[in-house]
Amino acid sequence: MRIAVVGAGAVGGVFGARLAAAGHDVTFIARGATLAVLRARGLQLDSVHGDVQLPMVQATDDPASVGPVELVLVGVKATQVAAIAPTLAPLLGPATAVIPLQNGVEASVQLAAALGNDHILEGLCRVIAEQAAPGHVRHMAVTPLLEFGPRAGHPPAPAVAAAIPAIAEAVRGAGLQALIPADMAVALWEKFLFIEPIGVVCAATGESFGPVRTVPETRELVDRALDEVIAVGQAVGVTWPADAKRTVWQRYDGLPPDERTSMARDLLARRPSEFEAQTAAVGRLGRSFGVPTPVHDVLAALLQPRVIAAI
């Protein structure tokens, strides 16, 4: 399969490296230091599932030089999607599927606004990884999973819909997991419910998963943040499973105690983060639908100095 991976950071690096190692024709769309390293010495993936060293990869900062591909995986940070979306048009052919991998609930809308509905699928991924350095990605935990499918209310072109099984087969053949949920809107918000509440509390406290879920006061704070995301999701139109919150807590209690979400790691390091697409989005959507989000409002205010420092 001919694939373009937009962004060669943590997520793009994990999925792109595995797909390239499996023999697919993968081109990374990157820039700056990452592009320079990819061109000079390839991509290194250190993974709990086995390392991958790709001494030579295809990489460019110009999607027009790549031409149409069968699959576009958008792995940049959620806050970068709207800006890069128009540049991806040269990658589109009649049956090209575009799948966002971001944490958040707005990426597919931003991609469709620039590229049209025909090519855009809903998507998300699950993995704990980080960019250790340009061209060097570290995968610490969680078997990489890609969930994707048609957007609610916006079915893709027939040729794109027909390509979904082949995409799933390619992902699985690369040693990754692929899942096509019955309702991608619910899947997207379930991922958001999992990643955001504990991430924002980790960022605000400076602690990792272990202390945050063990100390009663911070555990209660996470629980109240979960309630707010559930309420906002309901206002948007999500029909939550009855056990949504209990399922998230089961997963939280099984996370590596010394790890954090990518948003928390970035905020604590004063790097550009997905704060606007995650924590700020909860408050923004809450206000637009008349749903109070007092926990998120306070945590967002506490984190603003770090957000500003990273600009």
What is the strand and helix layout of this fold?
Elements: E1 2-6, H1 10-21, E2 25-29, H2 32-41, E3 43-47, E4 52-54, E5 58-60, E6 71-74, H3 81-84, E7 97-100, H4 107-115, E8 122-133, E9 136-149, H5 158-173, E10 177-179, H6 184-205, H7 209-214, H8 216-236, H9 244-252, H10 262-268, H11 279-289, H12 294-309
Parallel strand pairs: 1-2, 1-6, 2-5, 3-9, 6-7, 9-10
Antiparallel strand pairs: 3-4, 8-9
Helix pairs in contact: 6-8, 6-9, 6-10, 6-12, 8-11, 11-12
How would you describe the overall organization of this protein?
By secondary structure, the protein is of the alpha/beta class. 46% of the residues lie in helices and 19% in strands. It contains 12 helices and 10 strands. It has helices spanning 10-21, 32-41, 81-84, 107-115, 158-173, 184-205, 209-214, 216-236, 244-252, 262-268, 279-289, 294-309; strands spanning 2-6, 25-29, 43-47, 52-54, 58-60, 71-74, 97-100, 122-133, 136-149, 177-179. The chain has a 5-stranded parallel β-sheet, with helices on both faces. Strands 3, 4, 8, 9 and 10 form a 5-stranded mixed β-sheet that branches. The N and C termini lie far apart (37 Å). The model has no long low-confidence stretch (mean pLDDT 95).
